[in-house]
């Protein structure tokens, strides 16, 4: 995740590591807590890169802080307006399409996770507005490292607690080698009832 500086400095591309995966009981999102400038200077060690969007959905943040915060405000506002007008939460498909539209032209690549009538679902949203659904995915500068861990550890029929362990291990794998990721892990557990976000999490090995 990148921070924005004064007008006399150019915002530099930086990294982060976020992962999302589907379990039998819900969705797990995880992200590191480091905000850096240019991928070399650590500007903040307490960034929370997961935000609740509506009662059963959340997104991870990447890219510039300002753009990410603006995206969250717009997506949350749209979801709230939809619920107020229709008396029900937006479906994950509708949220994903909206997120894709809002991201066009930015440098962010968030992950969207949530539970609707079709069950637990995870989407990767790209800067061109593309929407890709999968059972597990990763984004940010630590993507390759995190994806390698996910491919090794992920299994169908994981419980929510097992999914938390897999997700945190994937982020930890990236933190080991990616200098733009670090300073702890935030984990979100998303079920059909609510979104619970833990600021500092550690893995419990899955064998």
UniProtKB/TrEMBL annotation:
InterPro entries xref list: Ntn_hydrolases_N, Pept_T1A_Psome_bsu_arc, Pept_T1A_subB, Proteasome_sua/b, Proteasome_suB-type
Enzyme Commission number(s) from the entry: 3.4.25.1
Activity regulation, per record: The formation of the proteasomal ATPase PAN-20S proteasome complex, via the docking of the C-termini of PAN into the intersubunit pockets in the alpha-rings, triggers opening of the gate for substrate entry. Interconversion between the open-gate and close-gate conformations leads to a dynamic regulation of the 20S proteasome proteolysis activity.
Gene3D superfamilies in the cross-refs: Glutamine Phosphoribosylpyrophosphate, subunit 1, domain 1
Primary location recorded for the protein, binned into one broad class: cytoplasm
Keywords: Autocatalytic cleavage, Cytoplasm, Hydrolase, Protease, Proteasome, Threonine protease, Zymogen
Localization per Swiss-Prot or TrEMBL: Cytoplasm
SUPFAM superfamilies: N-terminal nucleophile aminohydrolases (Ntn hydrolases)
One GO cellular component term noted in the UniProt record for this chain: proteasome core complex, beta-subunit complex
Residues annotated as the enzyme's active site: 16
Record note on quaternary structure: The 20S proteasome core is composed of 14 alpha and 14 beta subunits that assemble into four stacked heptameric rings, resulting in a barrel-shaped structure. The two inner rings, each composed of seven catalytic beta subunits, are sandwiched by two outer rings, each composed of seven alpha subunits. The catalytic chamber with the active sites is on the inside of the barrel. Has a gated structure, the ends of the cylinder being occluded by the N-termini of the alpha-subunits. Is capped at one or both ends by the proteasome regulatory ATPase, PAN.
Role description: Component of the proteasome core, a large protease complex with broad specificity involved in protein degradation.
Family: Belongs to the peptidase T1B family.
PANTHER family according to UniProt: ATP-DEPENDENT PROTEASE SUBUNIT HSLV (PTHR32194:SF0), METALLOPROTEASE TLDD (PTHR32194)
Protein name: Proteasome subunit beta
Source organism (scientific name): Halocatena salina
Protein encoded by which gene: psmB
């Amino acid at each position: 995740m990148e921070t924005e500086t004064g007008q006399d400095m150019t915002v530099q591309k930086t990294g982060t590591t976020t992962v999302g995966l589907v379990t039998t009981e819900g969705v797990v999102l995880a992200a590191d807590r480091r905000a850096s400038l240019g991928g070399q200077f650590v500007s903040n060690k307490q960034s929370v890169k997961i935000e609740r969007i509506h009662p059963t959905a959340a997104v991870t943040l990447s890219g510039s802080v300002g753009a990410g915060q603006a995206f969250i405000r717009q997506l949350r506002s749209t979801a709230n307006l939809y619920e107020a007008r229709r008396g029900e939460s937006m479906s994950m498909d509708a949220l994903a399409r909206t997120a894709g539209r809002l991201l066009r032209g930015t440098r962010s690549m968030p992950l969207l996770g949530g539970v609707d009538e079709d069950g637990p679902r995870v989407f990767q949203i790209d800067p061109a507005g593309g929407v890709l659904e999968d059972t597990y995915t990763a984004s940010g500068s630590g993507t390759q490292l995190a994806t390698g861990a996910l491919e090794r550890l992920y299994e169908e029929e994981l419980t929510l607690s097992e999914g938390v362990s897999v997700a945190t291990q994937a982020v930890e794998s990236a933190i080991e080698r990616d200098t733009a990721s670090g300073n702890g892990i935030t984990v979100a557990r998303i079920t059909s009832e609510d979104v619970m976000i833990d600021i500092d999490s550690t893995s419990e090995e899955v064998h």
